[in-house]
Amino acid sequence: RISVKKLFAAASKGSAQAQYTLGHCYEHGVSMPINAEEAAKWYLMAARNGDALSHYCIGTCYERGFGVEKDLALAVFHFESAANLGLTSVMTYVGQLYEKGVGVRKDSQKAYYYYREAAESNDGRGMFNLGRCFEQGMGTRKNLEKARSCYEKAVSLGHTLAGLHAARMYESGEGGTLDAQRAFHYYHCAAEEDKEAAFKVGKSYHYGIGVGVDQAAAVKWYMSAAERGDAHACRALGSCFQHGEGVDVNMKEAIHWYQEAADAGLAEAECDLGHCYESGKGGVKKDVEKAFSLFVKAAKKGYAVAQNDVGYCFEHGEAVAKSIKSAMEWYEKAAEQGLPAAQYNLGYCYYHYLGIDGGENEEKALAWFEKAARQGLAKAQCHLAQCFEHGYGVMRNAGKAVEWYEKASAQGYADAQVGLAYCMERGVGGKKNTGRAIELYRLAARQGHPDALNQLGYYFQHGVGVVMNSRKAVECYKRASAQGFDLAHFNLGVCYEKGIGVEVDAEKACKLYKRAAQEGIAVAKFKVGLCCEKGIGTRGSERDMGEAIRWYEKAAVNGLPVALHRIGECYLHGVGGIDRDEERAFAAFFRAAEANYRPSQVEVAKCYQQGRGVEKDEKEALEWYERAASNDDTPSTSQMMEADTATVSVEYLVSPRRGKEEELHTFHSESARSGGLSLSIPSPLSSTSISSKKSTVGSPTFPTPRWTGSNSSTPKWPPTLCVPTSPSCAHLRSAMCTIHNKVE
Length: 744
Fold this sequence. Notes:
Layout: H1 4-12, H2 16-28, H3 36-48, H4 52-64, H5 72-84, H6 88-100, H7 108-120, H8 124-136, H9 144-156, H10 162-172, H11 180-191, H12 195-207, H13 215-227, H14 231-243, H15 251-263, H16 267-279, H17 288-300, H18 304-316, H19 324-336, H20 340-352, H21 362-374, H22 378-390, H23 398-410, H24 414-426, H25 434-446, H26 450-462, H27 470-482, H28 486-498, H29 506-518, H30 522-534, H31 545-557, H32 561-573, H33 582-594, H34 598-610, H35 618-630, H36 635-642, H37 670-673, E1 679-680, E2 706-707, H38 729-743
Antiparallel strand pairs: 1-2
Helix pairs in contact: 1-2, 2-3, 3-4, 4-5, 5-6, 6-7, 7-8, 8-9, 9-10, 10-11, 11-12, 12-13, 13-14, 14-15, 15-16, 16-17, 17-18, 18-19, 19-20, 20-21, 21-22, 22-23, 23-24, 24-25, 25-26, 26-27, 27-28, 28-29, 29-30, 30-31, 31-32, 32-33, 33-34, 34-35, 35-38
């Protein structure tokens, strides 16, 4: 320490150090009052004498207008002079001025030069900025490996924030190395100073990225980042409180943190809040209108999940008027961003609805299904498999169908397991493999899949690939029936009617047949008619022929030949007190005969032969006898109308084009209901909630049903129910010879 008097004396003699010291004293009020003009004067004198630090100080005076008129150009001149005189601490700052063009024309090459000079002097900030130059190609050629190396050196020199950049590069693999552990290390280095790094550390602990899973530690770091205002950390905390990860479930806290993130403008958090209000779970009051408004807010910011949610709301009329066109527009926005759920939903809409293009478009549907499938969405893979299996929007390709069923099945998707099982048991796309089929049905059944349960019930009932076990069959049918599965209603009804695995209970059987009939199963309608005819399950156990006829007619509307035949018999013989009407009888027989039902073909021949309900015509009679005689009674004609359970091993071939929209969400197409017993049909794709949801669009239904089982084990209807049986060929040949002789 020297006296002010001596300091002035030295400064007057030209001592740069004394001049700098005087400037410092005047600037900060050391041993004398603050005087900006005097400070600037002495700094300037020292700078002219070549003092680097004084160049920097007078530069700050010109930059701030302290004791001199503000002049950025002069400020840059003095800063650059200080740097050129070797003042390391100012080199990085000069580089930044040239990078941003403050007080000087932008010059990336000069910026790079000064950053490099600072880095070579082991300045952490300079090393960090040199890394930025290499990463961005600023003033030099882009070199990510050198960039990462500079960031790591900057951290070692004490510039911890450079760790954030090094971590990002290790996390993404930029610079040639993907290393989650080193990414975690550098995020941890920067976490105390940077909120984003703190969030990343929390995320690493949460999901075990580069470090062991530790949800409590994740919450700690999320909280650290959230308290510093990191929106993503706020959202992550909301999720932890919502799902009880690292903390106890607390929906109040979850909503608080989601709201914090949403208030910061984070679209993802707005969408999360919307999901909370939409579901109304965990004590949150359900508010679909508020949910929809949050979805729209996030969707307008371009968040794909929210766009998908808005589309879902429009498709299903949730808090907004139903509009398939609007739904498809929103789905398309999200689908174009690559969101698998939206791609699937858009494909579904193209397949089922009148939408953007004004009509169904199987090719576009297929294209979107495939995009979602290739991203691993199981339900899209399953739906794509069904398209290849049935030829919807593409040529049939059994091999491709099996390939996609396998992919979805490997993810545990029950619908795909059922579809693949069908292929295995029928040899679709490869060799038959009943054992694998049963294994797949069991996997799907464990998830409660009704179609799989129904199919396993059939296997246990008939001992196909497993030891016959009627009780297990009934158990499977009951589980499927409890889910409202129409085919299981029917099969369980047969068990109660026949005493298969349970005590005979005609009342229960009739109730189950009615449930199946109300779901549209044609043969169940016929069974209900038989129950009414025999007084089973009716009020007072009285026969009700009028009600029986009504049920027969309902079955006949679906084209069930045996029902038409029974109607013909009732009118022909006046069964149950109804008036005989031979013309009506002939009309019913004729419709069933045209459907290739042999008993009706014989009755039509008799009607022509005897002139019952139609003008006598022995030539026509002969033709019908000949048709009946040549009818091989294939399972696809009469036999499948007379079986009790799923026993006919052929595909039902009628598959009309999809019809009205209200038919699209039924479990089976009308063609399936028109003539089958226990039909095994590809189950509709189930609704789920993605955020997975939604993917919860309704279930696509394919119109090709399947008969299941083995023709050799076909049980017959009980004789008491008077189901017509096919006349023998010998009988037909005898009748034909008689008529043939008369005709000749």
